[in-house]
């Protein structure tokens, strides 16, 4: 899978931009706050119809503009697909092959990607919501039906939580049971897909981590599933507690992940170096996992992370990615980038203007 080009209209600090990419490696070089990360964010937005940096769509629209658009052409093994995502006052519109997709699940997966950024350490040591979002984004790319079940589950969860805020005397247990059944229907599918994904991710990540640590460490991933055995029964048994707390206490919306190195919880007791290596292992593992699931290698976005890695980790990252994935790197300097191939494109970025280096 390759991204041939991208066109931005009123995206962040780019009023109009048209770039053609190298099929192998693309480096965006410039000082901070010039617009390098905005390019990677635009690619991410095109793939997943949302930003990895903000949940407020208005922040993506250029100053004094009222709408924005990101479009590109994705080259796959057997076809070329034009993609377009537009934000207007009426909302979000996504098109694949010039056809409007009414459901997110029908659009996601047209462009698969892996994003590696400094904030990825939050995957290891951040809040559980960060890890649940990671699961939703990654599984959604390779199993679009997962997004459909997630949307239905979250809609029902919101309705149940709103109902739990009623006065206790006004709550009908029979209606609560109807909502329970709907939660179980979609929540069970979510948990099954998460369990399947985590098992495969652990298998790939263990191999990568063993290589990165020269067989000195073993990585394991634990799926902390909130539901223990019987989802429906546990929901029914939690009625009184949920009514008292005005929120749903049982379900995959409370799942979490734990990462262990040599049986030690990395978030609690691991060094920053170990946490960084685990995060890198997971991201590198996803390259082959996504290929295994879809038959296409994803594109790889590396946002200002090369300076965070020592030379050996940089080499591991580049050797694993190049030859498989089309890679996009943002950096303030080329000094710390070692062993780069000659076959690449370097773009110089300054104050929202981009030119290709000679």
From TrEMBL:
HAMAP family: RecF. Residues 3-354 form the RecF/RecN/SMC N-terminal domain. It is found in: Cytoplasm. ATP binds at residues 30-37. PANTHER family: DNA REPLICATION AND REPAIR PROTEIN RECF. The lineage of its organism: Bacteria, Bacillati, Bacillota, Bacilli, Lactobacillales. It comes from the Bacteria. It comes from Lactococcus nasutitermitis. The RecF protein is involved in DNA metabolism; it is required for DNA replication and normal SOS inducibility. RecF binds preferentially to single-stranded, linear DNA. It also seems to bind ATP. Gene3D superfamilies: P-loop containing nucleotide triphosphate hydrolases (3.40.50.300), RecF/RecN/SMC, N-terminal domain (1.20.1050.90). The keyword Iron-sulfur does not apply. This is DNA replication and repair protein RecF. Belongs to the RecF family. NCBIfam families: recf. Keywords: ATP-binding, Cytoplasm, DNA damage, DNA repair, DNA replication, DNA-binding, Nucleotide-binding, SOS response.
């Amino acid at each position: 899978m390759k991204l041939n080009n991208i066109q931005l209209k009123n995206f962040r600090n780019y009023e109009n931009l048209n770039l053609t990419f190298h099929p192998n490696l693309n480096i965006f070089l410039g000082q901070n706050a010039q617009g390098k990360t905005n390019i990677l964010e635009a690619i991410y937005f095109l793939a997943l119809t949302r930003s990895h940096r903000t949940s407020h769509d208005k922040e993506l629209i250029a100053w004094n503009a009222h709408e924005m658009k990101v479009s590109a052409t994705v080259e796959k093994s057997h076809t070329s697909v034009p993609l377009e995502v537009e934000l207007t006052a009426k909302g979000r519109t996504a098109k694949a092959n010039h056809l409007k997709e009414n459901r997110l699940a029908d659009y996601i997966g047209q462009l698969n990607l892996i994003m590696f950024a400094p904030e990825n350490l939050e995957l290891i040591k951040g809040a559980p919501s960060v890890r649940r979002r990671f699961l939703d984004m990654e599984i959604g790319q390779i199993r679009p039906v997962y997004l459909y079940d997630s949307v239905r589950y979250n809609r029902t969860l919101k309705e149940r939580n709103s109902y739990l805020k009623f006065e206790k005397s006004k709550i009908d247990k029979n209606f609560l049971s109807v909502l329970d059944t709907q939660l179980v229907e979609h929540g069970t599918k979510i948990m099954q897909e998460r369990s399947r994904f985590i098992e495969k991710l652990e298998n790939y990540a263990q191999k990568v981590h063993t290589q990165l640590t020269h067989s000195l460490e073993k990585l394991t991933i634990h799926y902390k599933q909130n539901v223990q055995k019987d989802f429906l029964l546990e929901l029914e048994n939690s009625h009184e507690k949920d009514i008292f707390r005005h929120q749903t206490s049982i379900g995959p919306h409370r799942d979490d992940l734990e990462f262990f190195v040599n049986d030690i919880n990395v978030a609690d007791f691991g060094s920053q170096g170990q946490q960084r290596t685990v995060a890198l292992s997971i991201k590198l593992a996803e390259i082959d996992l996504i290929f295994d699931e879809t038959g296409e290698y994803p594109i790889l976005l590396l946002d200002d992370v090369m300076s965070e890695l020592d030379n050996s980790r940089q080499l591991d990252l580049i050797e694993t990615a190049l030859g498989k994935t089309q890679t996009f790197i943002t950096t303030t300097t080329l000094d710390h980038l070692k062993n780069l191939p000659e076959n690449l494109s370097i773009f110089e970025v300054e104050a929202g203007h981009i030119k290709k280096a000679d």
